[in-house]
Design a protein that fits this description.
Order of helices and strands: EEEEEEEEEEEEEEEEEEEEEEEEEEEE
Largest sheet: 4 strands, antiparallel
Helix content: under 10%
Distance between the termini: 13 Å
């Protein structure tokens, strides 16, 4: 990892740690969703330009290797309970299932058209893939449900529009899926994931990034209209709204510090939101086009993926100085 010479050491919410060099792009494009497996301290990021997932060691902040052959990979999700890594392979309409301990591929399962967002019910070992679809193909906006143990798709649920990200709420036993247009979050029951049972209207254009505070029952929905919306997870009631620095993409909640990190590709920023005070407390410049993040909760580290220079910028949340490097 390369450290920045002359970094300003005044106290900040996110303190710059350094850069991690990643493989150069094989074709135009960049990075997409990322996830950390806490048991091995490995971060997996979709390197869409390379049809690969890059693997980073979070303990040492160094690039390890890449998992190749994942056509149009867009999403990565980790299950700590099952020690699995899932990928959504948009270019081949499949999800990949990997062992987090060995990175060995266990299976690929065909799903709907252009899968993107992923959510996992670890108790039943079911994976939901939110499919972006194709406007030219009728009824292609769907969510696929995969029985991971059986390596089999068990349901295909029609969606009211193009999907974005998805999360699973174990406390409420439901999946939440962002819909870009009409602007809403749909609710799918975990026990019987074959239908939508509720839809929460979002008062901003283009719901995109989504995360959950299960203890407080809050959904954080970042919208293309440069708005962050907080909704009650049980009722869908809008609790708060906040202006962002630009159109957002990926969001991650640091539950320990109640900080929400929002990736904004244009002009290239991370907005840091104090979710208890409900205010933006910092905006950190990254790089134009850096629309995706990774988050390591054990080290309070945030990784911003920089498509122009094919590397990751690493930050550590400075509020908790006791966190290990």
């Amino acid at each position: 990892m390369n450290r920045h010479a002359g970094v300003d050491r005044k106290p900040a919410t996110l303190e710059f740690v350094g850069h991690i060099e990643l493989p150069g792009h094989i074709r135009p494009g960049g990075f997409d969703h990322a996830a950390v497996h806490r048991g091995t301290a490995r971060l997996y990021v979709a390197h869409t330009a390379n049809d690969a997932v890059d693997v980073i060691d979070c303990a040492s902040d160094r690039y390890l290797h890449s998992i190749a052959g994942l056509t149009g990979v867009a999403g990565v999700l980790v299950s700590e309970q099952q020690d699995l890594v899932f990928t959504s392979n948009r270019g081949e309409d499949s999800v990949g299932i990997f062992c987090a301990l060995t990175q060995a591929e266990l299976a690929r399962v065909a799903v709907g058209v252009r899968p993107n967002g992923l959510a996992h019910d670890h108790r039943r070992n079911r994976l939901l893939a939110a499919n972006v679809g194709d406007p030219a193909r009728p009824k292609s906006f769907t969510a696929s449900v995969v029985d991971v143990a059986r390596r089999e798709r068990i349901a295909e649920i029609p969606m009211p529009g193009r999907t974005r990200w998805a999360v699973y709420d174990a406390r409420r036993d439901v999946f939440f899926v962002n819909i870009a247009d009409p602007a809403r979050i749909v609710v799918i029951p975990g026990e019987d994931p074959v239908r939508i049972v509720a839809a929460y209207d979002v008062p901003a254009t283009g719901p995109h990034g989504l995360d959950l505070d299960p203890e407080r029952g809050r959904l954080f929905c970042a919208c293309d209209a440069a708005r962050l919306v907080c909704l009650d997870a049980d009722s869908g009631q809008v609790l708060d709204e906040l202006e962002l620095s630009g159109a957002p993409d990926v969001v991650f909640l640091n539950r320990a510090l109640a900080h929400l990190y929002v990736a904004i590709g244009d002009p290239g920023l991370i907005d840091v939101i104090d979710t208890r005070a409900w205010q933006r407390i910092e905006s950190i410049p990254t790089e134009k086009g850096a629309h995706t993040l990774g988050f390591d909760p054990d080290r309070n580290k945030v990784y911003a993926f920089l498509p122009g220079t094919h590397r990751a910028a690493v930050y550590r949340d400075g509020v908790d100085r006791r966190s290990p490097q």
